[in-house]
């Protein structure tokens, strides 16, 4: 029941626990619309390079890890190095790693997960012939034609195939710990963009009764034919596990200078980024999916990439053979979008799954790499004013899973979420209430669950959080905000009241 205490007091059954919130706020549980959640969980067993701001610091972190590491490791993984922080990031290459790890395979992913660097021992384990590279990926070379250890975009699949996997027991334990942490952040739902093994692991945890997050899985393109054959339809499932759309990639990222732009990058007048697939190929793929009731979930960051993606989605949704009412086309990131595309996603009800906390990473880098052509970045205010539907998320492990940092970023738009910095493209700021809605009701819309979750109403699932009254504080409140209680399906899963 929802209402004034005096009105519902008489309806409370005997023996039911009563909690006096003492003027605190009750909100719907938060939903993260874009994560690599199992990857995030498993990264806790890897080297964390996210704090490094120089090559010397990276060197020191790797050396310290080597000192404390078990010598019989068959592969060493790391994550989080940030080319936007490192003045000489190109020096992070095969030779740099070989000096520290000459005998053990090592692979390190960048913070945006679009660039990977391997040492020689790791490269020896990979099948790096050009013909074997996953579509939309590439490898780097030194001037002498030898491999420099850099792998771009979906070449990470070669690393995943080569490196030994953690045991099933360790994986499950790490994922359960991540679920608990997510609840502590006030999350009651997530979307995952991962392989089937991630979904299977979460399904196994659900079957054991330990899943306290509602999950929507967007499956990889490689599974599309299989899903069609199985008769899968998007956004079907139960209250704990749903299947979303087919995850596609249209371009790369600004940090790696692979996001596809109308204008070139400052460092190279011939570089406009690149497309993972052609516009025609993309259209044919999402038409095929749409004809079978499967929605497209498309990674698209650059303004020209977003232009092409919106074109194709519009065309599919108007196709008389497609039941457009059963589809929910999503664009993941929609980072730089011209006003024309902003209007079109609003008019055509194309869902935008966006990550405000990325502003902390991208403010300086976008200005440096594309200058004024980045002025349409993260256009939250413009999109909301036009009536577009936005769901917020993190893209963890790229940034923290903590949604309150995302609220701060959307409200203040500060580089590195640093209160002392100037707001970037300040006209695109939104209010705390709008940001909360993007993490709750509009986030629930992103899995067609707005009638079951996302607001505090009679008849909806009791996915709730308790928070201090943020209206009594300035926006810096969000930088340290934590839920006092998290409830999922009426069960308390986190409580520090």
Topology:
Layout (H helix, E strand, L loop, with lengths): L4 H4 L16 E4 L1 E6 L1 H6 L4 E2 L6 H14 L7 E6 L12 H7 L5 E5 L4 E4 L1 H6 L11 E5 L5 E7 L2 H7 L5 H17 L2 E6 L3 H12 L6 E7 L3 H7 L5 E2 L3 E9 L29 H13 L4 E5 L2 H15 L12 E4 L5 H9 L3 E4 L4 H12 L9 H7 L3 E3 L10 H10 L19 H8 L1 H5 L18 E4 L9 H4 L4 E4 L2 E5 L2
Helix pairs in contact: 10-11, 15-16
Cα-based radius of gyration, to the nearest Å: 23 Å
Number of helices: 18
Number of beta strands: 19
Q: Tell me the β content.
A: 15-25%
List the uncertain runs.
none
**What structural category do the secondary elements indicate?**
alpha/beta
Shape: globular
Structural overview:
The longest helix has 17 residues, at 168-184. Strand 3 (47-48), helix 3 (55-68) and strand 4 (76-81) form a beta-alpha-beta unit. The protein has 18 helices and 19 strands. Strands 2, 9, 10, 11, 12, 13, 14, 15 and 16 form a nine-stranded mixed sheet that branches. It has a six-stranded mixed sheet with strand order 3-4-5-6-8-7. With 497 residues, it is of the alpha/beta class. Helix 15 (403-412) packs across helix 16 (432-439). The model has no long low-confidence stretch (mean pLDDT 93).
């Amino acid at each position: 029941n929802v209402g004034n205490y005096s009105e519902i007091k008489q309806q409370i059954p005997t023996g039911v626990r009563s909690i006096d919130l003492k003027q605190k706020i009750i909100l719907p549980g938060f939903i993260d619309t874009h994560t690599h959640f199992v990857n995030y969980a498993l990264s806790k067993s890897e080297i964390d390079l996210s704090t490094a701001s120089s090559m010397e610091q990276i060197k020191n972190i790797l050396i310290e890890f080597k000192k404390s590491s078990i010598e019989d490791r068959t592969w060493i993984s790391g994550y989080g190095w940030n080319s936007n922080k490192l003045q000489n990031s190109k020096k992070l290459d095969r030779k740099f790693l070989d000096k520290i790890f000459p005998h053990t395979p090592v692979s390190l992913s960048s913070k945006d997960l679009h660039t990977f660097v391997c040492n020689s021992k790791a490269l020896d384990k990979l099948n790096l012939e050009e013909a074997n590279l996953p579509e939309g990926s590439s490898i780097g070379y030194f001037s002498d034609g030898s491999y420099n250890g850099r792998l771009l975009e979906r070449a990470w699949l070669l690393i995943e195939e080569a490196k030994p996997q953690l045991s099933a027991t360790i994986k499950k334990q790490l994922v359960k710990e991540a679920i608990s942490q997510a609840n502590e952040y006030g999350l009651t739902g997530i979307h995952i963009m991962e392989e089937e093994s991630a979904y299977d692991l979460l399904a196994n945890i659900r079957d054991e009764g330990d899943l306290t997050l509602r999950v929507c899985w967007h499956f990889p393109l490689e599974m599309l034919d299989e899903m069609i054959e199985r008769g899968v339809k998007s956004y079907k499932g139960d209250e704990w596990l749903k299947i979303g759309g087919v995850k596609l990639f249209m371009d790369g990222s600004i940090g790696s200078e692979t996001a596809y732009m109308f204008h070139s990058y400052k460092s190279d007048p011939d570089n406009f980024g690149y497309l993972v697939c052609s516009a025609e190929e993309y259209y044919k793929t999402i038409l095929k999916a749409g004809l079978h009731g499967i929605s497209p979930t498309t990674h698209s960051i650059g303004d020209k990439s977003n232009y092409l993606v919106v074109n194709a989605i519009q065309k599919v949704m108007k196709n008389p053979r497609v039941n457009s009412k059963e589809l929910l086309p999503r664009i993941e990131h929609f980072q730089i979008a011209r006003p024309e595309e902003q209007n079109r996603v609003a008019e055509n009800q194309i869902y935008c799954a966006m990550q405000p906390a990325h502003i902390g990473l991208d403010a300086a880098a976008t200005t440096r790499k594309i200058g004024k052509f980045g002025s349409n970045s993260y256009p939250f205010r413009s999109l909301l004013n036009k009536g577009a539907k936005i769901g917020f998320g993190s893209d963890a492990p790229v940034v923290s899973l903590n949604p309150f940092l995302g609220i701060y970023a959307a409200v203040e738009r500060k580089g590195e979420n640093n209160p002392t910095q100037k707001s970037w493209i300040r006209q695109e700021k939104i209010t705390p209430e709008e940001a909360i809605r993007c993490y709750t009701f509009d986030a629930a819309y992103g899995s067609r669950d707005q009638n079951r979750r996302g607001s505090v109403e009679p008849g909806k699932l009791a996915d709730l959080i308790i928070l201090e009254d943020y209206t009594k504080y300035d926006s810096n409140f969000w930088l340290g905000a934590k839920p006092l209680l998290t409830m999922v399906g009426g069960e308390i899963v986190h409580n520090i009241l």
